[in-house]
Amino acid sequence: VQLQASGGGFVQPGGSLRLACAASGFRLDYYAIGWFRQAPGKERELVASITSDGATTVANPVKGRFIIFRDNAQDAVYLQMNNLKPEDTAVYYCSTVVRGVRRWGQGTLVTVSS
């Protein structure tokens, strides 16, 4: 049972990136999925989440800029990040709870800088 996050990179302020979360050993579409981030020296925080039914929540710092969505055909969950700001720089993780245990992907680094 593993999660894998991908799609991070270096982008200038105002740019966009799309992160992808994929799974092995189980299907993502049965579970609620969260995207978290952790910036240097800061605690990990929830950025956005999506239920198995597709209901979404987005944290206030990224509301209006980030969108979380599923592609059940691809069995993936995406985080579309628009109008990126330097304060969005962090390692981004996807996560879910499987059989009572929280699972984390390995993280993907997003760097926003001019």
Task: Set down the secondary structure blueprint.
Elements: E1 2-6, E2 9-11, E3 17-24, E4 33-38, E5 45-50, E6 56-58, E7 66-71, E8 76-81, E9 90-98, E10 101-104, E11 108-112
Parallel strand pairs: 2-11
Antiparallel strand pairs: 1-3, 3-8, 4-5, 4-9, 5-6, 7-8, 9-10, 9-11
Can you describe what's shown?
This protein is mainly beta and 114 residues long. 0% of the residues lie in helices and 54% in strands. It has no helices and eleven strands. The chain has strands spanning 2-6, 9-11, 17-24, 33-38, 45-50, 56-58, 66-71, 76-81, 90-98, 101-104, 108-112. Strands 2, 4, 5, 6, 9, 10 and 11 form a seven-stranded mixed β-sheet that branches. Strands 1-3-8-7 form a four-stranded antiparallel β-sheet, with no helix packed on it.
